[in-house]
Task: structure prediction
Amino acid sequence: MTSAIKLRMGGFAIAITVVTLMIGWGAFSTWRQVERLSEKFTRVQIESFQTADQFRANLQELDSMLFQSQVNRRPPDWDLFFREVKKLDKWIDDQRPILTTPQEKQVLDQINSAYDDYQTAANNLKEVESSRDEDAVHSGFQKLENESRRLLAIGYRLVDAHRDSLTQFLMESRRSLVFLRTLMLGALVALVALGTLLSVFVYRDMIQPLRMQLVETHAILERHEKLASLGVLAAGVAHEIRNPLTAIKARLFMQQKQLKPGTSEYKDATVIGDEINRLENIVKEVLQFANPADPKLETVPADAPLQEARELLKPQLDRNGIELEIDGTAQSGVRIDPQQIKQVLINLIQNAAESIEKNGRIVLRALTRQQNLNGHPQPVVLLEVSDSGKGMTPEVQRRLFDPFFSTKESGTGLGLAIAARIVEKHKGALEFQTRPGVGTTFRIILPAVREDVV
Result:
């Protein structure tokens, strides 16, 4: 597993963990909010509203006791009344911790202040009652009754404050629940999206490449087996052909010495000799394909083989109106057998020139990049040969590296097969891109060497 894939997997794991924690936190917060809401409802409905109702009930009971004391005019009644007054005063002080909002406590402070006025009016009424002044008693009773109505009115405001507190709490709770619901839905959507992306990522970057690599490896193994079998056969046939050719060439040389130059027999012997030489070249190529020589590696600048191939072939291509140029050089080195890689480049350049025929352009490039080679990413050097020729059809592309397949009438079909074998001996790869009517680019991919080693 590459570091990039590990980094992505780690990122996905962290993201999924964060989203899962968000969902868990949202669920816990929702549960706490619902629990708080339930508790608040109980306290507001049972305690807060009960506070207002009980205060009004106690106040009405005090008014009833006061009326009774006025009717009976007995001192024990007054004593009972004032005992209840003190109890209610203490009860009012005890309600403050129960109330939860500043509005409720403010109303309770108003009740507390008004109740002090109520007690003062009650004490004044008791004092004037002993004087037997009926007008003063009536005036004191009227004032106490006004204070009682004032307290009852404030008690209703306490109910309103309770209701406002409940409404405010419900609105805040609703906003919190809506936020938490949105958060949980968003987190669930994010979790599903992350799961989908993870599935796509695992398939695209892990499963699919492994499948492609397995298919490619299987195809490469099959091709290598076929090439190995074909190489053994070709080597055997080439050896069997070489000995008779040597004998025929020797006898022809002896016969040609006895012929007079310019005669038809001499010309026939010359044609036979040329064909024997062509057969020898074919045998040589077959043997090279069957058993290519091991490369004698040395470290050279990446563009060195391009420069040598250009100097060798440029005069010949200029005569056909074909430009051969080098476009860009890589500041890196490669370990190669210079003669073998030059042979590959010459073959590719000649194929490009034959594709162009006349009046075209061939561009040589040396590039560096990071890409997969031999199953793992590494720095590589690309030696490219791009032409402006007619490109290749899909049928030709499928058989391009097959031995003995050629689009030329006199070709052996071994040039690209030998080039591919040479590049493989260098632990590299030979690839191509082509578009019919546009041109073709062949690319030799080789492991790069650090600059300080060049």
Notes: The chain has nine helices and seven strands.
